[in-house]
Design goal:
This protein is an alpha/beta fold. It is built from 14 helices and 16 strands. The protein folds into three domains: 168 residues, 3-Layer(aba) Sandwich (Rossmann fold), CATH 3.40.50; 161 residues, 2-Layer Sandwich (Dihydrodipicolinate Reductase, domain 2); 85 residues, ACT domain (Alpha-Beta Plaits), CATH 3.30.70.
């Protein structure tokens, strides 16, 4: 039986998951593939720590060159993360005519164009299903299942850490810091959770999805990003009263002329399926001209879910090798000659409904001053809640839900409102996505 030989760079959580799956489900993989898949080399800086897996003698190494320069290895899998040396390792593997698999969304967001170009030049394949949504087959769906569909909206809960925190705040009425601490204790958040809670990880993922959905290069630094650190338990409770839940959304909308690309917390109706994707689960909503709406949901992270996606890519490439198929699916979903720049919509031009929360002194005339400024900028109020009564000199929360308006008008209005002597501190804005 033919043997497909794999080299693994990175033996952390996901790398260990890949090896476990290939060993545990070796028989079912052989039955479906018609060949064996063997991990013949694993490179990592730490080859002494016990991962709970029996590894054959001679497989572990600290030298990546033993993988990328090994003529017998068919597929190189990169699971170390970050920009460098991951980029160099993959480029060297491609140069040596090896197919590659990666779960590295940050690398793809910044250097995806370069990697895709090198892979196609060499008649090779690149798998990156595990880079977004863990076990959710969103990459394969866009590249193959939806190949005839004109996608116009991608909207996703694509970071399990942020979703766990917001879910806990919603379900247990706790503060952000409490939810973050528990997420770290349970291993759902890193010691430094910045990329997750500030929306950077989600932005990496929506950049990659936008690239393959619309056939356009995306500069990661052009994506408008805000995280969840400013979300309070008061915001969560007010959202419930208005009939919404707060989620960190990665959004990409294409109207045929420009792409609206952003990451930020958003209120979505409690009745919508996306609102009920909780804990560390992920979900991605795809809208197009043929299906209207599809929602793919599942485990977005973890040793086995993400490892499963990596193994899926390995097996898909192995099938190409066995059938001697080349360029079956373009690396970036579109033919190289059809990759065209599409402008990004200016943030000030987007339109939405808005949730606004102000800390104001409980005095007569406060509402009229704020509503007057909003009215001056063509913003109308749908409903309003005042939380409690303030003691003299102390602030209370004034919460408003505003009808659809432009971001530019909202920001101008908020700048004026925050200058009022009855407004204490910065206001809080959450966009509403229906």
């Amino acid at each position: 039986m033919k043997e497909i030989k794999v080299g693994l760079i990175g033996f952390g959580t996901i790398g260990a998951g890949v090896v476990k799956i290939l060993k545990k489900n070796q028989e079912v993989i052989q039955k479906r593939l018609g060949a064996t898949v063997s991990v013949v080399k694993i490179a990592d800086l730490d080859i002494t720590t016990d991962r709970g897996i029996e590894i054959e003698e001679g497989v572990l190494t600290t030298s990546v060159e033993e993988i990328v320069d090994n003529p017998e290895i068919d597929i190189v899998v990169e699971l170390i993360g970050g920009y460098e040396p991951a980029r160099t390792f993959l480029l060297n593997a491609i140069k040596n005519k090896k197919h590659v698999v990666t779960a590295n969304k940050a690398l793809l967001a910044k250097h995806g164009d370069e990697l895709f170009e090198r892979v196609e030049e060499n008649g090779l394949a690149i798998g990156f299903e595990a880079s977004i949504g863990g076990a959710i087959p969103i990459i394969r769906s866009i590249r193959e299942s939806f190949v005839a569909n004109r996608i116009h909206i991608l909207e996703g809960i694509v970071n399990g850490t942020a979703n766990y925190i917001l879910s806990k705040m919603s379900d247990e009425n706790c503060d952000f810091d409490v939810a973050l601490k528990e997420a770290q204790e349970k291993g759902f958040a890193e010691a430094d959770p910045t990329f997750d809670i500030e929306g950077i990880d989600s932005a990496h993922k929506i950049a990659v999805l936008t690239r393959i959905a619309y056939g356009t290069p995306v500069k990661f630094e052009d994506i408008k990003v805000s995280g969840i650190t400013h979300i309070t338990s008061d915001d969560i409770e007010c959202a419930k009263e208005f009939g919404y839940r707060i989620k960190l959304l990665a959004i990409s909308k294409y109207d045929g002329n420009a792409i609206d690309l952003r990451v930020h917390p958003a209120m979505i109706p409690s009745s919508h399926p996306m609102a009920n994707v909780n804990g560390v689960l992920n979900a991605i909503r795809v809208c197009d001209d043929l299906m209207e709406e599809n929602i793919l949901a599942g485990h977005g992270a973890g040793e086995l879910p993400t490892g499963s996606a990596v193994v899926g890519d390995i097996v898909e490439i192995a099938r190409n090798i066995l059938s001697n198929a080349k360029d079956r699916v373009p690396a970036s979903s579109f033919q190289k000659t059809e990759i065209k720049p599409i402008p990004l919509k200016d943030m000030s031009a987007i339109e939405s409904e808005y949730f606004l929360r102000f800390n104001v002194l409980d005095k007569p005339g406060v509402l009229s001053k704020i509503s007057g400024i909003l009215g001056d900028h063509s913003i109308s109020i749908e409903s309003m809640i005042q939380k409690g009564r303030g003691e003299e000199g102390k602030a209370v929360s004034l919460v408003m839900m505003c009808h659809r308006s432009s971001e530019g008008n909202i920001q101008k209005a908020l700048n004026e409102i925050e200058q009022l002597d009855v407004v204490c501190g910065k206001s809080n804005l959450i966009r509403v996505e229906k």
